[in-house]
Write a structure and sequence with these properties.
This protein is of the alpha+beta class. It folds into three domains: 50 residues, Membrane-bound Lytic Murein Transglycosylase D, Chain A (Roll), CATH 3.10.350; 61 residues; 57 residues. The protein is 26% helix and 22% strand. The strands form four sheets. The chain has a four-stranded antiparallel beta sheet, with no helix packed on it. Strands 1-2 form a two-stranded antiparallel sheet. It has a two-stranded antiparallel sheet with strand order 3-8. A hairpin with a 2-residue loop joins strand 4 and strand 5. Helix 4 crosses helix 6. The two termini are 25 Å apart. InterPro entries: LysM (IPR018392), LysM_dom_sf (IPR036779), PGBD-like_sf (IPR036365). It comes from Pyxidicoccus fallax. This is LysM peptidoglycan-binding domain-containing protein.
């Protein structure tokens, strides 16, 4: 993965980036970037370090050297903060969670196995910077595009969340704007919102809450 900086300490976000991958590439943990005073506006606008928009700018401070006193002639263990990165997703069948089922997650060279919890959640830790993983569950295969979820404030972000929740089939080449508006209205109906098919503030907020981010 290539990382391009513009000016001193400014990084321009590209598709597939999240704060964890940016921090990893520059030798930081994601909290250092997210909590940096120069990134206050980014925190306010995006609300989550996992949901950035291509074109966003992230201030990356210079690395600060750290020294630790150690006794010579002995083995010492150092643990690096912020690695790996957590991946979470919920598996549903209709409105019921797919609970306690085995799965396999292939992320880079890692093959991670486990069972969903009682609410259907998959939770695993992967290396920062991985942009694609494949989930195998009960004979089904799902390709996951990690770091590619646009902010809910954008139409692309709303479409992606509706697709993830089964309201919209974005895999169809014939998917239209009308399909998106129909999906949006169906979501509003299900959530007790006015079925306006308009992406207003209340709908965006509910989309983020139900989707999980």
């Amino acid at each position: 993965m290539s990382f391009e900086t513009v000016g001193t300490g400014n990084y321009i976000v590209k598709a597939g980036d999240c704060l964890s991958s940016i921090a990893e590439a520059h030798g930081h943990i994601w909290e250092t970037l997210w909590e940096h005073p120069a990134n206050a506006e980014l925190r306010r606008v995006r609300g989550s370090p996992d949901v950035l928009m291509p074109g966003d700018r992230v201030t990356v401070p210079p690395l600060r050297p750290k020294s630790v006193a150690c006794q010579t002639g002995r083995l010492h263990t150092f643990r690096r903060k912020g690695v790996p990165t957590r991946v979470q997703l919920q598996l549903m069948k209709g409105d019921q969670p797919r609970a306690n089922i085995p799965y396999e997650l292939c992320a880079g060279r890692e093959v991670l196995q486990g069972h969903t919890d009682v609410d259907g959640w998959v939770e695993q830790w992967v290396k920062p910077g991985i942009q694609e993983a494949t989930l195998f569950v009960e004979g089904e295969e799902y390709v996951l595009h990690l770091g590619h979820l646009p902010p809910v404030e954008s139409n692309a972000g709303a479409r992606a969340r509706l697709a993830n929740m089964g309201y919209l089939d974005e895999t169809r080449a014939s998917s239209t704007e009308e399909d998106f508006l129909t999906a949006l209205e169906s979501f509003q109906n299900d959530e007790g919102l006015p079925p306006t098919a308009m992406l207003d503030a209340a709908t965006r907020e509910r989309l983020a809450a139900v989707h999980g981010c």
